[in-house]
């Protein structure tokens, strides 16, 4: 996921909605997604969340009320949000944002199942390392 794949739609508009805590992204193929900040945070493509290889993912929790306090463009292929908990190392390519938006129902389902299996809920402070539902991309 280091860069764009051929044919990946480009975002035409990215809007941070602080009150509703969603990132709205409209793409060149007509798709538009409202991605909750919590999902962005728990599925961060950063090494802190995804690890450095399969099996090194860390299940995220305690981020239900996280905000995006800043967002910056990275080249012509991604954005890097800064979250209210200080996390700012995830670089979200256009492809990854499209994945998060288009797959968010499945990602939420997997995330809640993993939280349940770990014996925590989404408001529990960070537990030890567990698999992340977002590692499949």
Plain-language structure description:
The chain has a single domain, classed as NE0471 N-terminal domain-like (2-Layer Sandwich), CATH 3.30.2020.30. The protein contains four helices and six strands, in the order βββααβββαα. The chain has 137 residues and is an alpha+beta fold. The radius of gyration is 14 Å and the shape is globular.
Low-confidence blocks of residues = none
Overall residue-averaged pLDDT value: 89
| Percentage of residues assigned to helices | 10-25%
Text of the CATH class: Alpha Beta
Strand ordering within the main sheet: 1-2-3
Question: Architecture in CATH?
Answer: 2-Layer Sandwich
Helix and strand pattern:
EEEHHEEEHH
Helix- and strand-based class? alpha+beta
Count of alpha and pi helical runs: 4
CATH topology: NE0471 N-terminal domain-like
Notable characteristics:
3-stranded antiparallel sheet; alpha+beta; NE0471 N-terminal domain-like; 6 strands; 24% strand; 137 residues
Give the helix/strand layout.
Layout: E1 11-17, E2 22-27, E3 32-36, H1 37-42, H2 47-50, E4 68-74, E5 78-83, E6 92-93, H3 94-102, H4 104-118
Antiparallel strand pairs: 1-2, 2-3, 4-5, 5-6
């Amino acid at each position: 996921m280091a860069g764009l794949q051929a044919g990946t739609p480009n975002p035409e508009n990215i809007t941070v909605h602080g009150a509703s805590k969603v990132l709205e992204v409209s793409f060149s193929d007509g798709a538009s997604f409202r991605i909750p900040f919590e999902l962005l945070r728990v599925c961060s493509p950063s090494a802190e969340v995804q690890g450095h290889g399969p099996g090194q993912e860390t299940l995220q929790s305690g981020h239900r009320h996280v905000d995006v306090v800043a967002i910056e463009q990275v080249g012509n292929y991604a954005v890097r949000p800064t979250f209210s908990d200080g996390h700012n190392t995830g670089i979200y390519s256009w492809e990854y944002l499209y994945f998060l938006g288009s797959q968010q129902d499945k990602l939420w389902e997997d995330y809640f199942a993993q939280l349940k299996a770990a014996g925590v809920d989404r408001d529990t402070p960070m537990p030890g390392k567990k698999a992340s539902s977002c590692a499949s991309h």
